[in-house]
Amino acid sequence: MEQRTDAVTTTMDDIRRIEAEHLDDDGIVTRPGVEAIRDRLLALAAQRDLFPIGDFVPPGDEDERTSYLYRLAQDPDDRFALYAQSSRGSVSTPVHNHTTWAVVVGFEGRELNRFFDRSPDGVTKTHEHMVEAGTGVAMRPDDLHSIHIDGRALNFHCYGLALERLDEREYYNPVSRTWKIFSNVSGIREARLGLQSC
Ligand SMILES: [Fe+2]
Question: pTM for this one?
Fold first, then answer.
């Protein structure tokens, strides 16, 4: 646990530095910057012994939720948040943005990421990437994706600002053909040393 804490702390220190070195004129991390953050997280995820699956239990069959988020890091000002998402399957999100940079890195199982552009009649798919161990995806604040998981999976999700603070994320409702505010974050589980919830 202490080794994990040290490795996560070092990783987040590096990510803070990477972000600071890759800002555009508007103060937003560049695409090479967020891709470098993804690569740094891939190096963390490669230290597989630090993340025993049993520490990140997914919801049981009786739980209406199909995935839990475990918080691994978050700055006092809520920037630079890292979570492990543990899923038992049947996870599917609508198309959404993040309003901050976002990175997903695989560890166990498979998480399909589909990417989209806004179009006059809603959204248009541009490409997709299957996130699994050794691979990841990197998004700038306005990038759009959806995620789809069948079966058990454990992935790392990292954001420039904690999910609880992302209260202006948008998702696309294909039925009403409108953009709405995405507020699906609740029940984040604490996984930082000394802060674990029961
Ligand atoms: Fe997302």
Answer: 0.94
